[in-house]
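Possible regression after last week's pipeline update?

I re-ran a chain I had predicted before the update to compare outputs. Posting the input and the new output here so someone can diff against the archived version. Not blocking, just want to make sure nothing changed silently.
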Amino acid sequence: MTLAAGIALVSVPAGIAASCRTNWPLGFYVGVIAAGCVLAARGRVAVRRRASAPRGADALGPVPS
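New output (post-update):
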């Protein structure tokens, strides 16, 4: 909930500022900025998971015989 509130506190004012400068609607900018934040967070999680994954031959477990 805190993360969602933080994303809203960033995306709404930034969307308002971008909408005032262009002819595009506010909802478009708020949606794109919020989606960008979510995609960035998911990318960060994926990178962290990949960095902590085991490597080498035993990363997949024992080979069945």
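Follow-up from reviewer: compared with the archived run. Residues 27 and 37 are 15 Å apart (CA to CA). Marking as no regression found.
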